[in-house]
Amino acid sequence: MASDLDFSPPEVPEPTFLENLLRYGLFLGAIFQLICVLAIIVPIPKSYEAEAEPSEPRSAEGTRKSKATGPSTSKRPKKETKKKR
Fold first, then answer.
1. Residue ranges of region Disordered (predicted)?
2. Structural domain contains residue 34
3. How many domains, in total, are found in the chain?
4. Residue 14 CB-density burial (10 A; 0-12 exposed, 13-18 middle, 19+ buried)
5. Which pTM does this prediction carry?
6. Rounded Cα distance, 64 and 66, in Å
7. Is residue 31 left, alpha or beta, with left meaning phi > 0 and alpha meaning psi from -120 to 50?
8. Containing structural domain, residue 31
9. In a domain, 41, yes or no
10. What digits encode the pLDDT tens for the residues 5-40?
11. How many CB atoms lie within 10 A of CB 62?
12. Residue 70: CB atoms within 10 Å
């Protein structure tokens, strides 16, 4: 009775190159998604934001002058045409 049972492992074909590529691509995609979710959940340290602000000092007068010296957009009146029927 025990000799009738076959306990040998089933024959599984070797994975092809495309199957391996798909498997590792899915793993990399899952890791990338976890990194993105963690980047949203974990807050950015305040020291990085504090260092970025003083590197670009701006005064109120400087911003006003840059806006005034910018290229002015000339508005042309639209040409009105009647539809010919």
1. 50-85
2. yes
3. 1
4. exposed
5. 0.41
6. 6
7. alpha
8. 15-45
9. yes
10. 878 888 989 999 999 999 999 999 999 999 999 999
11. 10
12. 8
